[in-house]
Amino acid sequence: MDLLMIVMFMAMGAVVIVLMIGLGGFAKGGTFNAKYGNKMMRLRLLFQFIAVLLILLYVYLRGQGS
Questions:
Q1: pTM for this model (two decimals)
Q2: In this structure, how many other beta carbons lie within 10 angstroms of the beta carbon of residue 45?
């Protein structure tokens, strides 16, 4: 497994973690959701964007080697 694949999986894991924290805060409600709910979803979008770029880069580089 190469470094790009490891970073790609870490980025996807970060998306899942932030999504779960955001959904948990939303389900529970209260002050955490009021204070951090919007920030968590924006952070998820950022991590998701990075993960998609890394996946595209990985696919592109793998296609170059064939």
A1: 0.84
A2: 12
